[in-house]
Specification:
The protein has 6 helices and 12 strands. The protein is α+β, with helices and mostly antiparallel strands. The strands form 3 sheets. A 5-stranded antiparallel sheet has the order 1-12-4-3-2.
Length: about 240
């Protein structure tokens, strides 16, 4: 079981976790797909640490800053999305995309409506057409990033319902669903706009700790972890 939400911790406290893990003979491993350092005993995981995207761990979990780091982010919800390009932490490009995808009154996206009802009247066809153009526009921007910059990492936040339309657009994504340099953003994105893009980028450069109940007992015994606010304290 998990003790609570991911918590923001300092680099110093992350290092103290590694030191305590070594002293207790715990196992540490890197999960590349989620960019997490996992600490476990012989039975189960005790701690999951979401690492800063601008840093990489060595075999012992010690972090170092990535040189010449090119990051592209895309945050997508029905009817609104934002893309951003960052070089060594500095935002050099961003764009917000909007589309008429949500049915009035029902508040349901046209894609979800067609999936459940299978109908397409004039208004529905208009919304569906805008939905298709919506994903083409997003992917055109991402293709520009691919052409103009040496992207190190792609970060994506997109509901699974929209994945077939994002990856199946007439304008293809510059990366595949299983690309090694593509990471799913581990934070909830409610409204993808410029402010949210900035906030998510800041969070991705932090260190976030999640403990199991057993891990809570192991790592809180020294009472030295300077745990910050939980993710629920922020409004994204």
């Amino acid at each position: 079981m998990i003790s609570g939400n991911p918590k923001l911790i300092s680099l110093e406290k992350y290092q103290s976790i590694l030191e305590l893990s070594n002293r207790q003979g715990l196992d540490g491993s890197y999960e590349k797909a989620k960019h997490q350092w996992i600490i476990s005993d012989s039975e189960s995981w005790l701690a999951r640490v979401s690492l800063p995207w601008n840093m990489s761990p060595n075999e012992a979990g010690i972090l170092s800053v990535k040189d010449d780091f090119h990051l592209a982010l895309v945050l997508i919800r029905a009817g609104i999305a934002v893309t951003g390009y960052f070089h060594n932490g500095e935002m050099l490009d961003h764009k917000v995309f909007r589309a008429y995808m949500v049915r009035q009154k029902q508040g349901k996206s046209q894609i979800k409506y067609l999936k459940t009802k299978g109908k397409s009247r004039a208004g529905s066809r208009l919304r569906l057409g805008e939905s298709e153009q919506f994903f083409e526009d997003i992917n055109q921007r991402l293709q520009q990033y691919e052409e103009n910059y040496a992207i190190t990492t792609w970060g994506i936040s997109c509901g699974k319902t929209l994945w077939p339309y994002f990856f199946g657009s007439e304008t293809p994504t510059p990366f595949s669903k299983n690309a090694e340099n593509m990471i799913t953003i581990p934070f909830h994105v409610q409204h993808p706009d410029f402010e949210t893009l900035q906030a998510i980028h800041k969070k991705l450069n932090g260190i976030h700790l999640t403990l199991s109940e057993k891990g809570q007992e192991v790592f809180d015994q020294t009472d030295k972890l300077d745990v910050g606010k939980t993710e629920d304290d922020d409004n994204w």
